Amino acid sequence: MPPHESDVLRGTLDLLILKVLALEPMHGWGVSQRIQDRSKGVLDVNQGSLYPALQRLEQRGLIDSEWQVPAQNRRAKYYQLTAAGRRAVGQETANWRRYVNAVELILET
Predict the structure, then answer these.
(1) Which pTM does this prediction carry?
(2) What is the average pLDDT value for the chain, to the nearest integer?
(3) Which of 2, 26, 63, 98 is buried deepest, with most CB atoms within 10 A?
(4) By C-alpha distance, which of 17, 22, 5 is closest to 52?
(5) What are the pLDDT digits (tens) for 77-99?
(6) HEC letters along the chain
(7) Would you state the torsion angle of the CA atoms of residues 25, 89, 42, 101, taken in this order, to the nearest 10 degrees?
(8) Cβ(10)–Cβ(49) under 8 Å?
(9) How far apart are CA 109 and CA 90, in angstroms?
(10) Domains in the chain, please, with CATH?
């Protein structure tokens, strides 16, 4: 895959994760399920893409994580947005919409 295409896909996944975490903190599997549910099954994020993206967002300071033991007594790492992550949701959404509009202009010709 060419580097620029990879960047677009990576940026898209990052935006989806940030948007999902803007709703509430959750563990990685929950993030994947929420994306799949909200996309009506069209988007299926596998673990090989999800967890590197979560690590990347944490390294950028957009999310924090902590280990918790929920009601099911299974320890899980929960992720939540930082203040910078909340700001990034709006910025990245605007960037995404600008990108989609540009692609639409080309497809209409």
Answers:
(1) 0.86
(2) 90
(3) 63
(4) 17
(5) 999 999 999 999 999 999 999 99
(6) CCHHHHHHHHHHHHHHHHHHHHHCCEEHHHHHHHHHHHCCCCCCCCHHHHHHHHHHHHHCCCEEEEEECCCCCCCEEEEEECHHHHHHHHHHHHHHHHHHHHHHHHHCC
(7) 170
(8) no
(9) 30
(10) 3-107 (1.10.10.10)
pLDDT digits (tens, 9 = 90+) for 27-52: 999 999 999 999 999 999 999 999 99
Long-range CB contacts for residues 24-30, cutoff 8 Å, separation at least 24? 25/78, 25/79, 25/80, 26/78, 26/79, 27/68, 27/70, 27/76, 27/77, 27/78, 27/79, 28/54, 28/76, 28/77, 28/79, 29/76
